[in-house]
Amino acid sequence: MTTAINSGGCQCGAVRFHVEGELGDASVCHCRMCQKAFGNFYAPLVTVGKAKLTWTRGVPKFFQSSNFVRRGFCGECGTPLSFEAPDGVGLAIAAFDHPERITPRIQWGIEAKLPYVDGIASLPGEDTMADQNAASFLTHLVSYQHPDHDTETWPPEDAR
After folding, report:
1. Which run of H or E residues covers position 65?
2. Could you state, in order of their start, the residue ranges of all structural domains in the chain?
3. Strand ordering across the sheet containing 52-57
């Protein structure tokens, strides 16, 4: 899949990671536990495999979601980050700085797949600024989200 160093982290930048080496299998899980852990239709995850995972800024907090699995998340902003089981660690694909480089290859937990998920791609799509009711709000939006790269100067001055 992907080699070299892949970095990522949470929305606020309090927790960052590097994965050095080839990532393992990428998948989405539809099980109810993953839906709740991600607050979403499913959880997109990629296994660390034999690569080396290093938490480079902060460390996740953990919730023991079952007798075998604990899930890591940022204790400041709540971003889901990891799925840790006896057979290895998975990381949230969208937490990577370049999630477009990681393509899921299989779906798990399809017995809990929400009935409308497969039809989402056929819904009409619009650019964010096409919403005329929100456009004025969005033109004044200042993001405090951590950028998709490592930086020593975070958060921005006006967010402190």
Report:
1. none
2. 5-116
3. 5-9, 16-20, 52-57
Task: Give the residue carrying structure tokens 């460390």.
Answer: 59
Architecture of domain 5-116: Beta Complex (2.170)
80-114, pLDDT tens digit by residue?
Answer: 999 999 999 999 999 999 999 999 999 999 999 99
Provide the whole-model pTM: 0.86
Q: Are residues 95 and 53 in contact, defined by beta-carbon separation less than 8 angstroms?
A: no
pLDDT 10s digits, 20-78? 999 999 999 999 999 999 999 999 999 999 999 999 999 999 999 999 999 999 999 99
Q: Which two tokens stand for residue 118?
A: 């497969």
Q: What is the Cα–Cα distance from 122 to 120, expressed in whole angstroms? A: 5
The structure tokens 């660390």 sit at 48
Which has the closest alpha carbon to 26: 47, 8, 42? 47
Q: How far apart are CA 91 and CA 84, in angstroms?
A: 9
